[in-house]
Amino acid sequence: MSEPVLTIFATAKQFRGHDGVIQRNAVASWTRLHPQPEIILFGDEPGTADLCREFGLGHVPELACTELGAPLLPDLFEKAQRTAAHDLLCYVNSDIMLMGDFLEALQKVSEAHKRFLMVGRRWDVSIREIWDFSARGGGRGLRDFVNRHGKQALPPGNSGFFAFPKGMWTSIPRLGIGRAAWDEMLVKLPGTVGRLRIVRPLLVYKCPGIGEDAVIKFGVIPSHDQGARAS
Fold first, then answer.
1. What is the pTM for the complete model shown?
2. pLDDT tens digits, residue range 145-166?
3. At 137, is the pLDDT very low, low, confident or very high (cuts 50, 70, 90)?
4. Which of 31, 45, 151, 201 lies in disulfide reach of 120, CB 3.0 to 4.6 Å?
5. Which residues fall within 8 angstroms of residue 194, CB to CB, at 6 or more apart?
6. At residue 139, does pLDDT exceed 50?
7. Which of 227, 208, 207, 228 is nearest to 216 (CA)?
8. Residue 42 lies in domain
9. Angstrom distances, CA of residue 141 to CA of 5, 18, 114, 145
10. Is residue 227 part of a domain?
11. How many domains, in total, are found in the chain?
């Protein structure tokens, strides 16, 4: 059973203050996945280029934005699919911490379905300092922390990531990241539901709406194709 080879892409806020802490925690968790994915950050917010150099990430500074400065989904997803070295991609919110369970779930989904969109729910938890993976038990310590202190967020607007095969979308409306419930709008684009296998992780940890950290956990259950269960 081969493991998925993945490109993670994201946009970030300024790497300053609390936003800097939670985004650094998120990126550090992505680099600890095995096999290690290609990681590309888009945009030119202060600190992005420095972090990409530090972690050896890909960086694409040019990104179209709305009049209010929110990154535009069509430009982001088009550039990500054109730039990515791998056929599996995943957009992840820049304050989402991932663990190995995420790749295990993605492997099950990609083996079961040729065309799919894997999304997740989040568990809110406050982490206000740089997470020391080596001193705090790595992914297991992080999961234990969230089990004790986390709370699952309610829909809508709680999808912390979108995993999909390259070429899935050819047209995306002019949605800006950060718009209320933009993630649910993306899932419900015309032609997405019905043509694709929409799968949702059974249990997921993500950042809260106020901008804390988040962690992905456990397996998946298809929500629109009950005949292809992956658990």
1. 0.82
2. 888 888 877 765 577 889 999 9
3. low
4. 201
5. 224
6. yes
7. 207
8. 6-222
9. 26, 21, 34, 6
10. no
11. 1
* Of 98, 94, 90, 97, residue with least CA distance to 116: 90
- Structural domain includes residue 231: no
Residue listed under structure tokens 């806020």 = 13
Distance separating alpha carbons of residues 128 and 142, to the nearest angstrom: 13
Residue 27 lies in a domain: yes
* Average pLDDT rounded to a whole number, residues 204-221: 35
Q: What is the pLDDT of residue 157?
A: 59
Model pLDDT for residues 9-61, shown as the tens digit of each residue: 999 999 999 999 999 999 999 999 999 999 999 999 999 999 999 999 999 99
The single-letter code of the amino acid at 17 is G
**Mean model confidence pLDDT for the chain:** 78
CA separation, residue 186 to residues 18, 166, 167, 192 (Å): 28, 16, 15, 9
DSSP string, the chain: -PPPPEEEEEE---SSHHHHHHHHHHHHHHHTSSSPPEEEEES--TTHHHHHHHHT-EEE----B-TTSPBBHHHHHHHHHHH-SSSEEEEE-TT-B--HHHHHHHHHHHHH-SSEEEE---EEB---S---TTTTTHHHHHHHHHHHH-EEPPSSS---EEEEETTS-S---SPBTTSTTHHHHHHT-TTHHHHBEEEEEEEE----TTT-B-BEEEEEEESS-TTS---
* Per-residue model confidence (pLDDT) at position 155: 65
- The domain that holds 107 is classified in CATH as 3.90.550.10
Our measurement of the distance from residue 211's CA atom to the centroid of its chain's CA atoms, rounded to an integer in Å, reads 14
